[in-house]
């Protein structure tokens, strides 16, 4: 057809289709080529582009959201942009922001600071950013202050606005790897496989595992306390930090704690601060613990016999099923009806979460629990409907794989790599794109497959993997 | 039940039914074809009898005697047969089909289409007959019910209109693509739509009602919004070709083809949509016996189809009172229907939602 059209046009014949010639129209919508066909237009001669190779590795990424001012996000240009006239300072990051840092394997959020650790055997293994008023991120010599005559005291930075490498006193850095990181209110713990636990920060209650020194100044302190694995009956596998206490889980399932005990956080039955890691007794005697969790003053532990133990503060009714008082000084078994195997427990500031093997999330405690604004407080666990996590008739395989608790916020990761958060949206820490409180699980749009999440008081760090 | 009498068939041919539209056929020609077939078929049925005309004839010409039909004048002499006029029925030759033409023509069937398909797309097309059909179609449009498409695509090519019919603009490699990568990309692409879907429901998200509806899966856009994806699933992958199942609300064919193009870009390759087939439109499915092919469109089939849809639509979906009641939702859940739709909130603050609600209430 087109060849005929070209020939007729060449001979200057006015070509109209039947319809238009009958109606005496002068224009027609018969296809006439209006451009010159070049080599690129012909399909066979077009070049084939290769954008990506077959064996490309997936890259891991870190996303952060929440309060930018403390430096916990590790982005300097958000609260302090270079060009203030053009870009206004941003105090809250409501949606995930990509933090450019490579090879991070473990993330931990504390109260206004975050610690990122890599698995590599380099000299520098750990990076930290955020509040450093108690030296919880280590000693970083400040270059701004001038030393007066006669003074030898050197100052450290009080706020680290970008991820800074933390110097740790390794005996042989090339032979050891970081296994776990944990952050509390003003202290942090870094667990390595050969050299034990490095504890930095505030030790006013013995949470770093060393003797309490009266009148110790924690600001600009370079003290890093090392607790070797030999101190425990078997090597430590996991460290968890509560607000002012620390928990250590060994390979054989024993649990040790140290720190503040006024609310029974250490679970040792005494109210004085405990400076040395001591084994927990109570209902935990002879039980092998597989998972521990704590964020504020309440702690939960999961055993291999599918039992849950709780101790610590019960101000908000987290342990109201076992005790009527506001704290449980010794670990007590929580009498929940467990029909299925429980995979994870998470204890937050005012509420606790539970995850079983079929992917159901159960919540109890006080606050924005995730079952709408009407449910403020629950003594016994209540199940959050699966449809809120993306389960529907179209996706019957969706279930939750991992849960984490912050102070007032909660996060859940599904098996498809989607992140759902809910709770109190303090300074945009939920990452949902707005500053409103979220009363039921809402999907966080990172654009990547989410692998790990850590919730802090007013910020959140997300570890994800690229799609390809 | 087979209808053989044309006037009853014409009365019954009012409502909504579904037809399979082949690709390459424009909607206007599809409507004309259906109309033409119906007209052709209804003219073969038994028509109404020819009309009779009343003529006054002298009594002598008829076999009738005085006093049989109409007793007119008793004062006249009884034996005057020549001058006495009697009314008789006579066939009205104006009304014969050979004079007037066939009883039914295209104007007797007012046909309208539901959400239309592209020229190049194929699949289910909902049509409405007469004014009742058009009303039902308009109500269905407001309900924002989901539609399901089966999309066949090919990796490695990029075209101007994202489909197979326009010229190829770019080529790229596709051997790095695997099923896992595609599912990851699909979950990420759906996330934004999922959140937008919930926010467009017009409900305050910090209310208990929003939580209640979201936990049942019924938080869907109520007011008119942009196209929203509900679900995307990969059913078959045979490189470089693939088949996707897409469920969406208020979409257009170009929107779906563009999504295929975006999937290709996310996978660091290119993709075109080679075939787009609509498989489900609210209650109508393509595998139903009563979804008619062009050749099967005749009066009785269409009447059966309209009856069937009346049973489904009227009971649970269209009637305002039952639609907003909890019982209808339970009924649908029991019937394991694929339709999920929201309940509006009377306390909602958005203007568009209130307007839509009032409009539905008045209709």
TrEMBL record, chain B:
UniProt protein name: Pseudouridine synthase II N-terminal domain-containing protein
Record InterPro entries: PsdUridine_synth_cat_dom_sf (IPR020103), PsdUridine_synth_N (IPR002501), Trub2 (IPR039048)
SUPFAM superfamilies: Pseudouridine synthase
Database matches in Pfam families: TruB_N
Family that this chain belongs to: Belongs to the pseudouridine synthase TruB family.
Gene3D superfamilies per the UniProt record, alphabetical: Pseudouridine synthase
Pseudouridine synthase II N-terminal domain ranges (all copies): 114-250
Organism: Clavelina lepadiformis (Light-bulb sea squirt)
Protein origin, superkingdom: Eukaryota
């Amino acid at each position: 057809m087109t060849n005929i059209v070209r020939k007729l046009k060449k001979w200057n014949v006015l070509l109209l289709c039947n319809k238009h010639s009958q109606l005496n129209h002068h224009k027609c919508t018969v296809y006439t080529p209006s451009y010159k066909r070049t080599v690129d237009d012909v399909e066979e001669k077009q070049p084939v582009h290769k954008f990506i190779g077959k064996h490309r590795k997936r890259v891991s990424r870190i996303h952060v959201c929440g309060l930018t001012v403390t430096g916990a996000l590790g982005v300097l240009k958000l609260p302090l942009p270079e060009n203030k006239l053009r870009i206004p300072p941003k105090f809250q990051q409501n949606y995930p922001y990509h933090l450019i840092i490579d090879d991070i394997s473990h993330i931990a959020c504390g109260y206004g600071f975050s610690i990122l650790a890599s698995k590599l055997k380099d000299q520098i293994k750990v990076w930290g950013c955020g509040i450093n008023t108690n030296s919880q991120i280590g000693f970083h010599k400040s270059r701004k202050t001038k030393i007066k005559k006669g003074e030898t005291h050197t100052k450290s930075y009080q706020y680290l606005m970008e991820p800074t490498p933390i110097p740790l006193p390794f005996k042989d850095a090339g032979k050891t790897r970081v296994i776990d990181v944990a952050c509390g209110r003003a202290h942090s713990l870094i667990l390595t496989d050969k050299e034990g636990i490095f504890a930095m920060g505030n030790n006013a209650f013995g949470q770093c595992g060393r003797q309490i020194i009266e009148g110790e100044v924690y600001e600009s302190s370079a003290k890093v306390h090392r607790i070797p694995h030999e101190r425990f009956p078997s090597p430590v596998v996991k460290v968890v930090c509560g607000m002012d206490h620390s928990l250590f889980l060994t390979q054989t399932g024993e649990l040790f704690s140290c720190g503040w005990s006024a609310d029974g956080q250490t679970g040792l039955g005494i109210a004085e601060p405990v400076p040395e890691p001591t084994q927990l007794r109570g209902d935990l005697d002879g039980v092998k613990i597989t998972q521990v969790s704590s964020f504020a003053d309440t702690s939960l532990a999961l055993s291999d016999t599918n039992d849950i133990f709780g101790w610590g503060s019960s101000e908000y009714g987290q342990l109201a099923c076992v005790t009527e008082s506001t704290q449980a000084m010794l670990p007590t078994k929580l009498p929940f009806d467990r029909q299925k195997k429980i995979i994870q427990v998470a204890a937050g500031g005012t509420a606790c979460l539970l995850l079983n093997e079929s992917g159901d999330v159960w919540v109890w405690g006080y606050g924005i629990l995730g079952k709408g604004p009407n449910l403020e407080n629950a003594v016994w666990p209540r199940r959050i409907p699966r449809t809120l996590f993306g389960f529907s008739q179209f996706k019957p395989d969706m279930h939750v794989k991992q849960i984490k608790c912050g102070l007032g916020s909660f996060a859940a990761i599904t098996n498809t790599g989607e992140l759902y958060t809910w709770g109190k949206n303090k300074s945009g820490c939920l990452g949902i794109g707005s500053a409103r409180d979220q009363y039921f699980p809402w999907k966080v749009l990172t654009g990547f497959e989410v692998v790990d999440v850590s919730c802090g008081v007013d910020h959140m760090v997300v570890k994800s993997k690229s799609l390809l | 039940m087979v209808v053989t009498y044309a006037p009853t068939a014409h009365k019954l041919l009012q409502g909504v039914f579904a037809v399979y539209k082949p690709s390459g056929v424009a909607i206007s020609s599809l409507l004309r074809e259906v109309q033409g077939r119906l007209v052709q078929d209804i003219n073969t049925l038994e028509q109404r009898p020819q009309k009779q005309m009343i003529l006054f004839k002298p009594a002598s010409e008829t076999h009738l005697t005085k006093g049989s039909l109409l007793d007119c004048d008793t004062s006249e002499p009884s034996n005057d047969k020549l001058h006495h006029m009697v009314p008789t029925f006579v066939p009205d030759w104006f009304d014969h089909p050979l004079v007037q033409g066939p009883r039914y023509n295209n104007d007797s069937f007012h046909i309208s289409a539901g959400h239309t398909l592209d020229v190049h797309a194929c699949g289910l097309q909902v049509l409405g007959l007469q004014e009742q059909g058009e009303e039902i179609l308009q109500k269905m449009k407001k309900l924002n019910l989901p539609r399901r498409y089966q999309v066949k695509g090919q990796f490695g090519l990029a075209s101007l209109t994202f489909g197979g019919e326009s010229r190829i603009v770019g080529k790229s490699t596709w051997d790095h693509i695997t099923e896992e990568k595609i599912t990851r990309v699909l979950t990420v692409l759906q996330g934004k739509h999922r959140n937008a879907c919930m926010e467009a429901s017009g409900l305050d998200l910090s209310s208990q009602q929003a939580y209640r509806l979201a936990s049942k899966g019924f938080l869907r856009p109520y007011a008119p919004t942009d196209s929203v994806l509900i679900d995307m699933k990969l059913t078959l992958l045979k490189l470089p070709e693939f088949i996707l199942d897409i469920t969406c609300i208020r979409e257009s064919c170009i929107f779906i083809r563009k999504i295929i193009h975006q999937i290709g870009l996310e996978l660091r390759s290119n993709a075109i949509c080679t075939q787009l087939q609509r498989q489900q439109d609210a209650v109508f499915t393509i595998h139903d016996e009563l979804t008619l092919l062009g050749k099967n469109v005749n009066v009785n089939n269409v009447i059966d189809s309209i009856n069937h849809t009346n049973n489904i639509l009227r009971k649970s979906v269209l009637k305002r009172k039952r639609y907003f009641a909890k019982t209808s939702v339970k009924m649908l859940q029991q019937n394991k229907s694929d339709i999920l739709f929201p309940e509006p909130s009377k306390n909602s603050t958005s203007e568009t939602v209130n307007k839509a609600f009032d409009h539905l209430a008045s209709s």
